[in-house]
């Protein structure tokens, strides 16, 4: 069995979560705080040059390694063990049913046999892992197993980045699973823990928006749309003749000409709200479900002024921006005011860091 560094497994403390995305590298370190509590020890981010990571693929190893080194130094963390994420498109997952009572070795043999039916690559070209979910519904003699596989070179790229940065990758998770883990923790803080609710999570990144729809903690629908914050940055570049890095920086600070709001930002917000509305409608037409009870926004674009209200108005769904650190205590070095502005972009990194707690 080829081990994928605990793709679906647990991490060992101390552990930091490092999210490598198209736009940058984000780090989160969590620690135990009292009985069942969690403390945010530190978080930090470093931007990546355009083209360093494209569609989840590492295109410039040196630039990514440099960013990981800088974010680790900036954070002040001493933890050398890290949890990394793989883009959902890079990982094949499949639930399979196997006989109960098999030994670990027997399970590995059965999983490899089943995997060859679902993976369009030779098994020696992939990293493979599995996790026993539990008894199969309606079949007491069987168990449900989650199979996960990714091209070996994609996993090795991320492991190599950690090693070149002086770190060790202990856990390799799927980014959408990490985001779901972070959201599950936040929802568990609610009085009814969101029981029976259909929840849609929109992670609006630089290049793409990842949509996950959940019911009682299980993913019932996933999709990715080619829409992200880079669209607005590109509009700024074209309108004002700025270099990309300057446009990206000014987009975040709002230091732009007077016509920016009406001529660039408002059309972008309209497009974003339309993308969300279309995605919800597509979910309804392609699944048996006919309602969404709660909608969450995350990612770097989630806090753009006006987006949340526009999405709620267009979809007619209760909507909120998710903060993955809700309910956590904060280390003295963490500035709460800054955290409020940064938190939605750290959903994946927080979910990766939560692996410390199994």
In short:
The protein is α/β, with parallel strands linked by helices and 358 residues long. The chain has helices spanning 61-75, 104-118, 152-164, 175-187, 230-240, 244-253, 260-286, 307-315, 336-342, 347-353, and strands at residues 16-20, 24-32, 38-47, 53-54, 57-58, 81-86, 91-99, 126-136, 139-151, 168-174, 198-204, 209-215, 218-225, 294-298, 319-321, 329-330.
Question: Which key terms come to mind for this protein?
Answer:
358 residues; alpha/beta; Dna Ligase, domain 1; Nucleotidyltransferase, domain 5; six-stranded mixed β-sheet; five-stranded mixed β-sheet; FtsA/MreB
Describe the structure.
Among the domains are: 90-152, 2-Layer Sandwich (Dna Ligase, domain 1), CATH 3.30.1490.300; 192-322, ATPase, nucleotide binding domain (Nucleotidyltransferase, domain 5, 2-Layer Sandwich), CATH 3.30.420.40. Helices cover 35% and strands 30% of the residues. It is built from ten helices and 16 strands. The strands form four sheets. A six-stranded mixed sheet has the order 10-6-1-2-3-16. It has a five-stranded mixed sheet with strand order 13-12-11-14-15, with helices on one face. A three-stranded antiparallel sheet has the order 7-9-8. The protein is globular, with a radius of gyration of 21 Å. It starts with 15 loop residues before the first strand and ends in a 5-residue tail after the last helix. The model is unreliable at 1-5 and 7-12 (pLDDT under 50). InterPro entries: ATPase_NBD, FtsA/MreB, PilM, SHS2_FtsA.
